[in-house]
Known about the structure:
With 137 residues, the chain is an alpha+beta fold.
Amino acid sequence: xxxxxxxxxxxxxxxxxxxxxxxxxxxxxxxxxxxxxxxxxxxxxxxxxxxxxxxxxxxxxxxxxxxxxxxxxxxxxxxxxxxxxxxxxxxxxxxxxxxxxxxxxxxxxxxxxxxxxxxxxxxxxxxxxxxxxxxxx
Length: 137
């Protein structure tokens, strides 16, 4: 048996996704622990600086780059799954269009979030990196 998860974990992650969808990046960063360890999927365009440690690193290394390089970046079909050990698994899709190439992606994605005391302490992305790599070329 795993460690029983906090009942508020789903709400924390859901709030982050809602804030991201509205473009409210400060609110999306708010539930992150000061020492969050954020990892993009191996071979993803933004995995070049893994791991990102701290909300500012996530902001500058991931979110700002997405905003600068993509015409839009939407998260769709989000389903949240409570996992033991204070983890939340999100299954979703990326729907995005690259500014420079005009190419789009529609990729199956999963995010694994780890929380402690209502704060996100770790993030791991799993996605179709081939689509993202092709879109930026």
